[in-house]
Amino acid sequence: MIAAATDTSSVTNEWVMAEVIKNPRVLRRIQEELDAVVGRDRMVVESDLVHLPYLRCVVRESFRMHPAGPFLIPHESLKPTTIMGYHIPAQTRVFINTHALGRNPRIWDDVDEFRPERHLPEGGGRVEISHLPDFKILPFSAGKRKCPGAPLGVVLVLMALARLFHCFDWSPPDGDDIDTEEVYGMTMPKAKPLFAVATPRLPPQMYGSSGAARHGGKQI
After folding, report:
1. Which residues are known binding-site members?
2. DSSP 138
3. How many degrees, rounded to 5, is the angle at CA 10 between CA 217 and CA 26?
4. Disulfide-capable partner of 199 in 13, 146, 169, 213 (CB 3.0 to 4.6 Å)?
5. Annotated binding site for heme
6. Global pTM value
7. Per-residue pLDDT for 110 more than 60?
8. Could you say which residues bind heme here (predicted)?
């Protein structure tokens, strides 16, 4: 339970940060949205999150390309059934390959391109993350046994990312490329930890007593 609540969120945040830093145009659009909704004279609060559709698309695109775990928690069939011509006996252990689902070329075009805009709903509307009725992405599984912590997890991930992108500009250290090699396991983190340079972009008083703004940038 502890791993499911913490490791998956940290893995998701690191993948979002890596892909956004690798794609500066995405970072600029996130910050433009944050400046329009939040401004630069206060911090992001939870009530702002519903008004940040592009950031929500960024998280959803990260779930598509880099799900926190390559497989969902195993399920077991209760009775014999047939799905798309395949016979599934009763008491069969079933694994859902969510990594392959997010890179299925029959569903997605340009599967290896990080393009959050693909998730913007036609005609506007809320960008869903934890409740995805189309089954194209299943970060929290689906149905009666979906992750009960999905709403909380989405809020925590969005809040952390919104604060990081709102407060800082981000760039690779020494202009290096951002590595996106994956490691397969119970979760799917980056093969190499993310290193990036953070440069404050808000007025100095917004950073409190930490003094981060006075240092003109800090490698983390």
Report:
1. 147
2. -
3. 55
4. 169
5. 147
6. 0.86
7. yes
8. 147
